[in-house]
Amino acid sequence: MMAEDRPIAAAALSTAAPSLAPDEVGALVGRLYGIRGSVKSLAGERDQNCCIETADGSRYVFKISNPSESVSVVDFQIGALEHIARVSPDLPVPRVVRTLGGRTRDTVTLPGGVQTTVRMLTYLDGIQIRETPRTAGQRRAMGAFLARLNLALRDFSHPAATHDLLWNVSAAHRLTAKFDAIDEGPRRALVESFMKRFTDHVLPHLASVRAQVIHNDYHLYNVLVAPDDHERILGVIDFGDMLHAPLVGEVGTAAAFHMTGNADPFEGPAQFVGAYHAILPLVEAEQEIVADLMATRHLITALISEWRAKRYPENRAYIMRHNPAAWEALSQMADLSRNEMRDRLLAEVREVQIG
Predict the structure, then answer these.
(1) How far apart are CA 61 and CA 81, in angstroms?
(2) CA distance 161 to 156
(3) How far apart are CA 211 and CA 249, in angstroms?
(4) Is 65 strand, coil or helix?
């Protein structure tokens, strides 16, 4: 990427999210969709998200995009959901709700005269996995589900799929400009060390591995399970970080969120990756770098969250929710060789291959 294009990557993370009042949101939903109901705010990093609940209990998610988000990227996200609904209708993902005029999205003017895009999705029931106890069965269910989701997206394409995004482990090298957000000391040395590992051992090989549209944000907040069965996945949400990128980056990113909860920080990720591999096998070149990319996800989480928390202290709690785990994981991996990390992450994959 050329230097002059780099600010685009940070635009959505450096522009404040919309903040319409509940009554304003309700009026918009009524006018555009003919739906009346209560309005409840939902957490979001870049956009304003609201749950709309009608008198009969039906629920929807109304999304007001960050003004910096291009309409083409919104159409990309909408197109992906509609593609999944066509090719894998059994996969529980949000469905796009049309406006009264039959549109998948619409344009509104925010206070101050800025225009942005709005859309509506169905609301998926279930509880976030982060609210449940971690189990091996749950991790394996998550790994298998992600593999099915990636298979559903494998043949999907869109002109905006290659849009720029800071939350892309495959482009982590661009975040060296964010090093200033970390004070000099052990943590600064930690990010510099893992960034060098990425640029030396991962970046040169990314052009030769499989690439496709990926979810790119498959973690414990975005996967829903049944209240009475925490190993039964009811849905996956938040397709806002999707992009076309190396498939192995999807696996490394998702595995990173399973390092907590066990005495051995690699036990959970190994269970996740093993289940993923059983449905959508990682080729040899991907197996060689998947552990590096798991570390890279923690690296970019630390860098982006520290940078954004300073910029938006009013949203600090949400921005920093993954920050402590990222620093802990980087510390746990700091003294391990690349080969040791790889072998521990692929423990269940190698067992199957040997067997």
Answers:
(1) 14
(2) 9
(3) 9
(4) coil
Strand partners, 119: 63
Structure tokens at 152: 């559903």
Separation between Cα atoms, residue 262 and residue 328, nearest integer Å: 13
pLDDT at 310: 87
- CA distance readout (Å), 106 to 119, 120, 322, 331: 7, 10, 33, 46
Q: Which residues does residue 40 pair with via DSSP β-bridges, in sequence order?
A: 51
3-state helix, strand, coil in the chain (%, to 5): 50, 15, 35
Sheet containing 223-226: which strands, arranged edge to edge?
127-128, 223-226, 229-236
> pLDDT at position 112, please?
85
Positive or negative: CA dihedral 303, 241, 326, 295: negative
pLDDT mean by block of 10 residues, the chain; 355 residues: 36 72 96 97 88 97 94 97 98 98 96 93 97 97 98 97 93 94 93 97 96 97 97 96 97 97 95 98 98 98 92 88 94 96 96 62
Contact 5, 58 (CB under 8 A): no
| Pair of tokens at residue 149 | 């989701």
CA distance 26 to 54: 11
Distance CA 156, CA 76 (A): 10
The pLDDT value recorded for residue 352 is 66
**Which residue stretches of 215-266 are H helix?**
247-256
pLDDT at position 6, please?
36
Q: What is the DSSP string of 98-127?
A: PPTTS-S-EEEE-TTS-EEEEEEEEPPPSE
Rounded CA gap, 149 and 154, in Å? Answer: 9
The confidence score (pLDDT) of residue 350 equals 83
Q: Which pLDDT does position 312 carry in this prediction? A: 85
What domains, with CATH codes, occur in the chain? 15-122 (3.30.200.20), 127-354 (3.90.1200.10)
